[in-house]
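Exercise 7. Given the encoded structure of a 435-residue chain, write a plausible sequence.
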């Protein structure tokens, strides 16, 4: 096992410089204040509320039962802002961080407005990935388990015939990826002419080139009176264009004064490419990892790194878009159940996946843009918990590091010799709160 000292001396002390806008003295002057700032802002994204209760929204008794059984005690800020507006039937354009209760912010009003006595589709939730669709449908079923509402999930890579047969029975809410639901609409089996609610989660991805044209075609099947609830952590040009066309009078919610997730401490390790696996080994020995997600920039590197981690003697799974859907589902389920502490992933796993036991995210390969970086590090620090994001930076990545720091107005610090466990370990966080 490599010693902690190796990381400290050989790969962390040589900060790459870029004097034009990121001088070392300015960087170091910010380091001392970040820890105090994090403590002040601890859990603010989910606890800085107006003091409302779920009962204040006059929800159905059966829905309140599901909410409390799910473990939700009080609405988070995004839920406080979103639920009453959605219940009033207004369009919503919401910008909120991942891990702040965003999914329940639209599922609760959606379930409240759903009438299980009617047999037609009453709400459609669009998400960009199969894994997020499965997770969202599970949350929806848990919240609405006393309502008698029928929830269906449909994604590419699964049996189209089974989805068609399912739609011949009562379905009230569909959670879907764009390609599959559009196919079912065109075949005339997913009928949304009476559907009044369309939710777009991770809308920046849904409106990207990957799904170009799908959204307009899907909306064309809806009645003109439909309500659109749009949620996104970032607002690129595509989202603004969609807003101008379809959401002119939308109620806008912006809970992102700064783009980076509060509560996540970010570090970098400056090293050579050949040192990365050795560095991972050292990090595993230094840190108290509950669960960790390690991101790579390609499918090939995901599989190669997973093998190397296994060779080091650690339990490790991997997931990427080229895997069979059934295999991906099993990996996702087993990781969520805690079968392994480490998951190596491509960017498939960056969108909205909520596994609260993840307290460390490592960018084995540093991303090229700030949006991807934001979504990756958002896998730790879910719903008010603290977490670590560790970036392995080579000479090739240093300018991307500086640019993303500048764009996100955030602080990525050199990895220290000792990491304070209060920054990312749950029991130490609870001890700090009691103190």
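Solution.
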């Amino acid at each position: 096992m490599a010693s902690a000292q190796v990381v400290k001396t050989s790969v962390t002390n040589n900060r790459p410089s870029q004097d034009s806008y990121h001088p070392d003295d300015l960087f170091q002057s910010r380091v001392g204040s970040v820890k105090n700032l994090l403590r002040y802002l601890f859990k603010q994204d989910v606890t800085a509320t107006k003091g409302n209760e779920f009962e204040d929204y006059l929800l159905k008794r059966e829905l309140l039962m599901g909410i409390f059984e799910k473990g939700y005690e009080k609405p988070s800020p995004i839920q406080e802002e979103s639920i009453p507006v959605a219940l009033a039937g207004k369009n919503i354009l919401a910008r909120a961080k991942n891990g702040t209760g965003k999914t329940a912010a639209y599922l609760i009003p959606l379930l409240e407005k759903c009438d299980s006595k009617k047999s037609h589709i009453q709400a459609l939730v669009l998400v960009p990935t199969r894994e997020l669709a499965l997770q969202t449908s599970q949350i929806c079923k848990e919240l609405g388990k006393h309502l008698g509402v029928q929830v269906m999930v449909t994604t590419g890579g699964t049996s189209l015939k089974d989805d068609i047969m399912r739609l011949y029975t009562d379905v009230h809410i569909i959670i879907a990826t764009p390609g599959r639901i559009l196919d079912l609409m065109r075949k005339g089996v997913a009928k949304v002419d009476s559907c009044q609610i369309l939710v777009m989660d991770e809308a920046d991805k849904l409106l990207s080139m990957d799904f170009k044209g799908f959204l307009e075609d899907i909306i064309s099947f809806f009645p003109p009176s439909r309500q659109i609830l749009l949620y996104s952590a970032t607002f690129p040009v595509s989202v603004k264009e969609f807003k101008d066309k379809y959401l002119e009078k939308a109620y806008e919610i912006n809970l992102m004064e700064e783009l980076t997730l509060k509560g996540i401490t970010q570090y970098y390790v400056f090293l050579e490419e050949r040192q990365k696996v050795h560095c991972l080994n050292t990090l595993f020995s230094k840190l108290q990892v509950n669960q960790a997600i390690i991101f790579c920039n390609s499918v090939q590197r995901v599989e190669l790194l997973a093998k190397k981690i296994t060779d080091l003697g650690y339990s490790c799974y991997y997931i990427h878009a080229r895997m069979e859907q059934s295999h991906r589902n099993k990996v996702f389920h087993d990781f969520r159940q805690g079968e392994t502490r480490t998951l190596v992933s491509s960017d498939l796993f960056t969108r909205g996946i909520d596994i609260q036991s993840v307290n460390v995210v490592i960018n084995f390969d540093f991303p090229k843009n700030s949006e991807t970086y934001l979504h990756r590090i958002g896998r730790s620090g879910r719903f008010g918990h603290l977490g670590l994001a560790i970036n392995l930076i080579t000479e090739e990545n240093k300018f991307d590091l500086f640019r993303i720091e500048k764009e996100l107005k955030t602080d990525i610090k050199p990895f220290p010799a000792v990491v304070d466990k209060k920054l990312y370990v749950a029991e130490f966080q609870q001890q700090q709160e009691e103190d």
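Remark. The CA atoms of residues 200 and 230 lie 5 Å apart. Students should compare their own answers with the one above.
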